[in-house]
Amino acid sequence: MTEEQSYLSFMTQDMESKKALSIMISCMVLAMAYHAFIFWNVKADDVMARNEEPIWDVMFELSENSATDSRLIQDESTELFSYQIDEGASSGLMVGYLNILIEYDETSGSINDPCDVVSAEIKHGEIIADWNNESNVLSGTSDDCSSINLFLQIYPNFDGLTKNQPGSTPEEVMTLWENREFGMGEYLLSIELNTQEFASNIPTQGDDDEEVSITWTFVRFSPSVVEALTD
Which residues contact 136 (CB under 8 A, 6 or more apart)? Predict the structure, then answer.
């Protein structure tokens, strides 16, 4: 017989020992039940709050940079426009998104000459951006001298508005908004021109080119993080 079995046998030999053992076991059960009640009903919210990550406000200081280029494009030809952004030119800012405005007029001088057809497309190239974003407008065409507006989302989920994000520390949240690989490199835009002439038996000035103007507008940002206010 083991030492533990001998001890239990001794404790249960008479009624007084049995009562003492029952009281001891009852106290132990009550103590465990009390601590379980306190944990699940009184301290549960505190425990869960300690396990939840805090919420942070991510705010953005915006900077807009524009550049304009114009070129005379020949009929039935395509011209390639480019714009370069590198680490030195970015001034330490992240690149959020790109707007491109393409403008032209009918300048042939011929009476009743219709507007030419201009088609534009942002080439994929090697730029790291959110190329599959549903808001992207990567190509467009105009045949009535109206402007063409293109859009490329570069930094994912960036729209310039304050974000609420969970995270253990502000440094952890900030890493989500400090990826300088997005938007670095050479942007390529192709412009194709096809002239249209008014059908007439009267001799008119030939329409074999058009001047097209391109405005690149980059929205860049610098993020900052503060703990969100809670009710």
Answer: 130, 151, 152, 153
What's the total number of domains in the chain? 2
Q: For residues 215 and 210, what is the distance between their CA atoms, to the nearest angstrom? A: 17
Q: Which domain holds residue 22?
A: 3-51
CA angle (226, 221, 120) in 5-degree steps: 145
For the chain, the maximum distance between any two Cα atoms, rounded to a whole number of angstroms, is 131
Q: Is 41 left (phi over 0), alpha (psi -120 to 50) or beta?
A: alpha
Cα–Cα distance for residue pair 193/77, rounded to 1 Å: 6
pTM: 0.74
Question: pLDDT tens, 148-207?
Answer: 999 999 999 999 999 999 998 999 999 999 999 999 999 999 999 998 876 554 545 556
The reply to whether 211 and 153 lie within a common domain is yes
Residues 163 and 97 in one domain: yes
Same domain flag for 124 and 157 = yes
**Domain identity same for 89 and 153:** yes
